[in-house]
Design brief:
By secondary structure, the chain is of the alpha/beta class. Helices cover 39% and strands 18% of the residues. It has one domain: Rossmann fold. Helix 1 crosses helix 6, helix 2 packs across helix 3 and helix 3 packs parallel to helix 4.
């Protein structure tokens, strides 16, 4: 298969890239990036993309058999600008799904969050819920939505609050409802790939239990 990955430099995306390149199931791996990356690999194709240029974005997704999307930002990165936040999380993910359909790629896998709900009063959960609903309406044959809670793993950028949570949450795991338990980012990446290989049905939503099961 020919896989395309959006968000290759993030916590989940970096694990996904490593796993995809090592997996013989995938003949080639294309990553869509906003800035040059020095890393090279015989199976790797890098495309610099302006995600606000719709035609450039669509063309960059051509000839894909599956598209993985783990794009995301933080309030800190966008300096609290919710419109800028939405342009990254919502616009890139939803447009990627739409361009998949236009290009004839019928399998789309993306990272959302546990508790995503378009009717939530929380900006983040509401946005993720809106993304999920929009992607579901595109009409793709296979849509796989990952809904992890706190991600465990080493990020490139420092997030003080998240570091504290990564230390505390595992200690409280035994009293935390299953779907809200922290999970290793690499487990999420592995589950995304397994879903693509097994194609369980037209829509799958994976929270903690499903992610852990696919890593057993």
């Amino acid at each position: 298969m020919r896989a395309t990955l959006i968000g290759a430099t993030g916590l989940i995306g970096s694990h996904l890239l490593e796993l995809l390149l090592a997996d013989e199931y995938f003949d080639s791996v294309r990553i869509l990036i906003r800035r040059p990356m020095e890393f090279t690999h015989p199976k790797l194709e890098k495309k610099l993309v302006d995600f606000s240029d719709m035609e450039s974005f669509r063309l960059a997704l051509e000839d894909s058999d599956v598209v993985f999307c783990s794009i995301g930002t933080t309030q800190k990165k966008v300096k609290g600008d919710k419109d800028a936040y939405r342009k990254i999380d919502y616009d890139i993910t939803v447009n990627a799904a739409r361009f998949c359909k236009l290009n004839g790629c019928e399998t789309f896998v993306f990272v959302s969050t546990v508790g995503a709900n378009s009717k939530s009063n929380n900006f983040y959960l509401k946005l993720k819920g809106e993304i999920e609903e929009a992607v579901k309406t595109v009409g793709l044959t296979n849509v796989y939505i990952m809904q992890p809670s706190l991600l465990l793993g080493k990020r490139k950028e420092s997030r003080f609050g998240e570091k504290i949570a990564q230390w505390i949450m595992p200690l409280l795991s035994f009293v935390t409802p299953a779907k809200y338990k922290p999970v290793k980012a690499t487990y999420v990446a592995k589950a995304m790939i397994r879903l693509v290989k097994e194609k369980p049905n037209d829509l799958s939503i994976a929270t903690y239990r499903e992610i852990k099961k696919m890593n057993s």
